[in-house]
């Protein structure tokens, strides 16, 4: 599976994963949000409606930026894992770098 060239944020997500600055999976991401360890959250478009609502609500409450994007497979592939419904970035610099792609491309940022 190759990354879509217009989804350059996935490359940045891969760099964050290599640097050890991501948490992935629903439980780990939710826990990191509650502990205020994440700076940006990505949720897969094909995640269940309950999962998307859970992360929108948690991120809203804890004031963490969130974007709904890509598929579970793409998010997982970007960080070198199997499919993931959610990924949280724990480094503010890397989180800002990923977030910039959403502002520039007018993608959904919740």
CATH class descriptor: Alpha Beta
- In the CATH hierarchy, the architecture is 2-Layer Sandwich
The dominant shape is: globular
Strand content is 5-15%
Concise synopsis of the structure shown:
The protein has 110 residues and is of the alpha+beta class.
Features:
single chain; 110 residues; 5 helices; 15% strand; 4-stranded mixed sheet; 60s Ribosomal Protein L30, Chain: A; globular; alpha+beta
Question: Overview of this structure, please?
Answer:
- There is one protein chain.
- This protein is an alpha+beta fold.
- The protein has a single domain (9-104), classed as 60s Ribosomal Protein L30, Chain: A, CATH 3.30.1330.
- The chain has five helices and four strands, in the order H-E-H-E-H-E-H-E-H.
- A four-stranded mixed sheet has the order 1-4-2-3, sandwiched between helices.
- Helix 3 (49-62) links the parallel strand 2 and strand 3 (66-69).
- The radius of gyration is 12 Å and the shape is globular.
- The termini are far apart.
Secondary structure elements and their pairing?
Blueprint: H1 9-18, E1 22-24, H2 26-34, E2 40-44, H3 49-62, E3 66-69, H4 72-78, E4 86-89, H5 92-104
Parallel strand pairs: 2-3
Antiparallel strand pairs: 1-4, 2-4
Helix pairs in contact: 1-4, 1-5, 2-3
């Amino acid at each position: 599976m190759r990354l879509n060239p217009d989804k350059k944020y996935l490359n940045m997500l891969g760099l964050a994963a290599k640097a050890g600055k991501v948490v992935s999976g629903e439980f780990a991401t939710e826990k990191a949000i509650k502990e205020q360890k994440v700076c940006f959250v990505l949720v897969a478009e094909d995640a269940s409606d309950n999962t998307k609502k859970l992360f929108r609500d948690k991120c809203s409450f804890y004031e963490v930026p969130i974007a709904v994007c890509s598929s579970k497979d793409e998010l997982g592939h970007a960080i070198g894992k199997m499919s993931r419904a959610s990924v949280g970035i724990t480094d503010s610099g890397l989180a800002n770098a990923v977030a910039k792609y959403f502002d520039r491309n007018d993608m959904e940022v919740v």
